[in-house]
Backbone:
């Protein structure tokens, strides 16, 4: 997968919490890029530019260009630390990738045909048990998302990880434990609609 996101960063010389706080006071974000054969590098990024990128779901499952002093490093966004109360990003972790080495990443699930699936037509409610899934693949095979088609799902039924269609070259890590059935978790379930207590009580009285 080619990169459509570019994170332009500056090198951060001073380590430690005090340095990170100073960076944030300047309206910027401390970050680190690690992995591969190179040493970890401390970075500084512009907060507003990062927020624009993070508004796109695809940024979390794309190979990114991290540019430091004109040098482009291919990476994935490994983690994002956000302020618990404010709309503020506190820290980013980037993991370098190599075209010839498999990577692990969280990929979002896109659910389609929810409104017209068999279970929904009889009043069932769609319950999402997972919103993303961890995959292993080569960087060029990293999917933007995994599509989950609910068309034939009936009331009371579930779709499990083993029933998802993995793109070519992509492995679902939840299924990498051989015969461990507990790893084949439910992705989505159609449950019966809730019955209001007042209606149930009224029916009982009648």
Residues:
């Amino acid at each position: 997968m080619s990169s459509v996101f570019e994170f332009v960063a500056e090198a951060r010389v001073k380590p430690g919490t005090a340095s990170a706080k100073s960076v944030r006071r300047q309206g910027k974000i401390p970050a680190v890029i690690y992995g591969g054969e190179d040493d970890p590098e401390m970075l500084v990024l512009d907060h507003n530019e990062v927020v624009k990128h993070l508004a796109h779901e695809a940024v979390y499952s794309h190979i990114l260009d991290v540019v430091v002093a004109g040098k482009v490093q291919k990476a994935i966004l490994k983690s994002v630390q956000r302020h618990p109360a404010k709309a503020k990003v506190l820290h980013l972790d980037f993991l370098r990738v190599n075209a010839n080495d498999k990577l692990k990443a969280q990929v979002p699930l896109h659910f389609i045909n929810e409104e017209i699936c068999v279970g929904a037509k009889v009043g069932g409610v769609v319950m999402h048990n997972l919103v993303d899934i961890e995959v292993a693949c080569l960087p060029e095979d990293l999917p933007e998302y995994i599509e989950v088609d609910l068309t034939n799902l009936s009331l009371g039924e579930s779709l499990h990880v083993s029933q998802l269609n993995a793109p070519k070259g992509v492995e679902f890590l939840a299924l990498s434990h051989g015969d461990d059935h507990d790893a084949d978790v439910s992705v989505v379930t159609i449950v019966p609609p809730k019955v209001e207590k007042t209606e149930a009580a009224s029916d009982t009285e009648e």
